[in-house]
Design a protein that fits this description.
The protein is α+β, with helices and mostly antiparallel strands. The chain folds into two domains: 106 residues, Conserved hypothetical protein from pyrococcus furiosus pfu- 392566-001, ParB domain; 73 residues, no CATH class. It is built from seven helices and four strands; from the N terminus they run αβαββαβαααα. β2 and β3 form a beta hairpin. The mean pLDDT is 84.
Length: 196
């Protein structure tokens, strides 16, 4: 084994043991720089209702939250009294504070394979699955499904007096049609719905 592998093996990994704790034991980190909007907390709550609890909250021995502030707020909104936690035993104050930041930033560093995302979202949408559970907003879903060009209205300089430009969008189902119609009308475009 390499020295890095030995170091990891010798370290207590918090994920080695998941416990159930009373939610009242958890203490939010007062200097958490990550924010959670009301909309995002609702999204997290919806995901917990849909899939159950998939990622425990990371806490220190005193119940201080290291990772999982949003999940904790969602659990409170759902009136849960117990939540799964992993305890980071023996972590220094600096190690805990650095992880609060890195846990959020490392997730943001990922990208998207847009072709694969479009394929996955299209198939989920065709099956009737609620795409809002993926966490994407209506505009983000429209961009992922149809590309940026479909969302951008022309600028006044590009518009001609007494001219009209039309685009036809074929949707897989009524819900997708409603989503696209709403998104385009919110962008200020005149739309009409045609049923074939």
């Amino acid at each position: 084994m390499t020295s890095l592998t030995n170091a990891i093996k010798d370290t207590m990994n918090p994920a080695d043991q998941v416990e159930k704790w009373d939610i009242e034991r958890l203490v939010p980190y007062a200097r958490n720089s990550r924010t959670h909007s009301d909309e995002q907390i609702s999204q997290i709550a919806s995901s917990i209702k849909e899939w159950g609890w998939t990622t425990p909250i990371l806490v220190d021995e005193d119940g201080g939250i290291i990772a999982g502030h949003g999940r904790t707020l969602a659990a409170q909104r759902l009136k849960m009294t117990e939540v799964p936690v992993m305890v980071a035993k023996g972590w220094s104050d600096a190690k805990k504070r650095a992880y609060v930041i890195s846990d959020n930033k490392l997730a943001l560093n990922a990208g998207w394979d847009m072709e694969m995302l479009r394929l996955e979202l299209s198939e989920l949408d065709s099956s009737g699955y609620d795409l809002e559970l993926t966490g994407f907003t209506g505009d983000e879903l429209a961009k992922a499904l149809f590309g940026d060009d479909a969302l951008e209205p022309s600028t006044p300089e590009e518009q001609h007096v007494d001219s009209a430009y039309e685009i036809s969008v074929v949707c897989d189902n009524e819900q997708q049609q409603e989503d696209v119609y709403q998104m385009l009308t919110e962008k200020g475009l005149k739309c009409r719905v045609l049923t074939m």
